[in-house]
Request: fold
Amino acid sequence: MDRRAFVAGLGAVLAAPRAAEAEQTGKVYRIGFLRAGQPPTTFVEAFQQGLRARGYIDGRNVVIEYRFTDGSFDELPRLAAELVRFNVDVIVASSAPAAFAARSATTKVPIVFVGVYDPLEIGLVTSLAHPGDNVTGLSQSSTDLGGKRLELIKELVPKLRRVAILWHPANLTNLVQKKGAEAAARTAGVDTKAVPIQDPNQFASAFEDARGVDGLMQMEDPLFTTHRRQLAELAIRSRLPAIYSIREFVDAGGLMSYGADYADLYRRAATYIDKILKGAKPAELPVEQPTKFELVINLKTAKALGLTVPPPLLARADRVIE
Reply:
């Protein structure tokens, strides 16, 4: 799906038509939404819900300018600069690459990032309590989540001895995610094989490179999320039990996911927007961690892989797809 088709499709999830903007009086705020790759509709819906809960209706008192790429990072600087030229009041940066591009484009427009792993370690903020400058948002820890995901896939595949780690080298947060997964694997006595991917054309060869492993851990990256259905299909075709970071992969046919409830993160991003539009400075708004996590299991995919999900693991799932 191209950018034009995606933007048109957003009409189904937005609460009010943009045409209504012309009919409104008073202040109309502009919010930029920047991402590498098409955001899942669940992200957009949740963000819109959060805004509506605080009295902001797209097309009435706010206008949201969506800018995204096909999953690559190369166009992010240009799109970020475009949002700044549009005089947006705040930029929502979906993922670390978008946040860095936005920060490079402006030191004045407030930036709210969502779902960035270890923003302090990658240098996006100077402090979690006092982010500094014009950037703040919602983050998560790579080490804790890496260990939990390894624990879950090992519970499903008790004979797990070697696991492939799919990661995107151009994404700094993928590097810290990979380190977290590798540290967890060492503790558990599991060998790892890092498989880098920078382009969709490398998907098939990456799975060829992953042959011989017992399972797969895929790092969270907007390129991967954009092509989640293809990646999930490749894992099944390769007979690889895989665990992902967000439930949208399981909805697309993936085996299992564990991570932050991203819909909740995007709803909470609206709280930052509200505070900033009312005068708060990003430097004064602490970076927050997720408060909701979810385990999702696809029983249909488990069956296709010849796996039996242990009842205790199934009982802990927040959602089961049959």
User: Anything to note?
Assistant: Residues 172-188 form the longest helix (17 residues). Residues 1-8, 11-25 have pLDDT under 50 and may be disordered. Residues 142-260+294-321 form a domain with the Rossmann fold fold (CATH 3.40.50.2300).
